Amino acid sequence: MTKWRLTLLVYMIAAGGATAQTVVTPAAAPPFSLPDQNGTPVSLEKYRKSMVLVQFWASWCLPCRIENRRLVKQYPRFNDLPFEILSISVDVDRAQWKNAIAADKMAWPQLLDDTNKAGCAACRWGAGTLPASFLIDPEGRIIAVDAASLLTGDPRGFRKLLQKRLAPGSR
């Protein structure tokens, strides 16, 4: 019976049934400046005026890796919009992190959080469960949580949301 429950849980996670996006009252996104794969600091502020999906993940997290592959399939559909994904890993091992990025073929900015530091980005963003994702509007406000599930589950709806939020006078 336990094997059956585990199989069902893995299936639910793989099918995306374990998460659903939630639109929230806009709140200021906590700022961060984190190193990318080359050690260059990248800040959220750099992406002001764009819609940004901030995704927290780890190489050892199976649901994260499944979500990464789904995001890879959908990411090119939004190249015509001012939209970016910023993936923030909570990995401790840089080699495992880089190997996972290559294996999952993630073509958007990859950042590394130091969860051993006080005030780590994952802590300030409340990313206690992985994967965690937040949609940020052009003014730097969080407008949805678990937003990756909307992008991967309903790309047309996600596009409409982006277009609506990016339209002049919509803010």
From TrEMBL:
InterPro entries listed in its UniProt record: AhpC/TSA, Thioredoxin-like_sf, Thioredoxin_CS, Thioredoxin_domain, Thioredoxin_ResA/DsbE_sf
Thioredoxin domain mapped to chain residues: 23-167
Signal peptide extent: 1-20
GO cellular component: cell envelope
Disulfide bond keyword on record: yes
Subcellular location field: Cell envelope
Gene Ontology MF term list: antioxidant activity; oxidoreductase activity
CDD domains tied to this protein: TlpA_like_family
Highest taxon listed in the record's lineage: Bacteria
Keyword field: Cytochrome c-type biogenesis, Disulfide bond, Redox-active center, Signal
BP terms from Gene Ontology: cytochrome complex assembly
Full protein name: Peroxiredoxin
Species assigned in the record: Niabella drilacis (strain DSM 25811 / CCM 8410 / CCUG 62505 / LMG 26954 / E90)
